[in-house]
Structure formats: C-alpha cells, structure tokens
Fold this protein.
Amino acid sequence: MSLREMSQLFYQIKLLDQKITQLFEHVTGFSLTRYEMIMEISQNNGCSQNRLQEHLQIDSAAVTRHLKVLEEKGYVTRKRNPENNREVLVYLTDKARKSIEKCHEHQTLLQKAIDESFTQSDLHQTVDLLRKLDDSLNTITEE
C-alpha cells in the first residue's frame, strides 16, 4: 500500500469518526467519551479517576475536564476516598441514571441505521479489522 493509499484510508476513517461522533452526540446528548465515562462509572459506582483514565486511554487532565463538565451538569459527584485522601472517587447521580435510560430508548435510531446496512458478521469483521489496524499501529509507535 502506498503512502497516498494509506493517507486516503486514514482520512476516510477520520471523516467517519467525525460523523459518528456528531451523530452519537445528537442522538444521546453525550459525547462518546462522556458516555463511555458514565457507563464505566455506572458499572463501578465509586470508581477512581485513575480507573477512568485507564479505561478510556486518555490523560488525567482530560478525565478531570470531562468530569468537571459532567459534575456541572449534575451527572456525577466526586468525593475523596476516606481510605486514601489523595484519591477521588466518582459517583453517578439520579439525573445520570435517568439520562442513561433515555439514551437506551434512542438507541433504536442508531441500531436501525446499522442493522439496515450491516449483518452481524459484517460488524464483527469490522471490529476485528479495526483491532488489527490498531495493533499494527501500536507496534509502530512502540519502536
């Protein structure tokens, strides 16, 4: 594959990422990152900011910025860990739980668009190919 072909592939992925991000936020009211953050907290209520950072693979400053926005909107609360005062634990509010339920109601819009275009096999193959690409790129950055 030539550099030009790689560039076109990566640019197509970039455009698709932008489109998916905008559509997801339009339908759910959350950015993908904040939605993932809320879902991780919902599965591990009282999780640490470090856990969120590891799960989302973003830096601690980005986690703090996202949590600040979520806290200002009333979706999360942050409290110091009584067992380790340096650690901050994050909890979902009732408002966040209700918003998650609404997101799942709107899921059918996204699901319908995907189901009309892809079989389950197509989706699994796409995920596998994206993981393979990610693994390949990781080996380059590690060298």
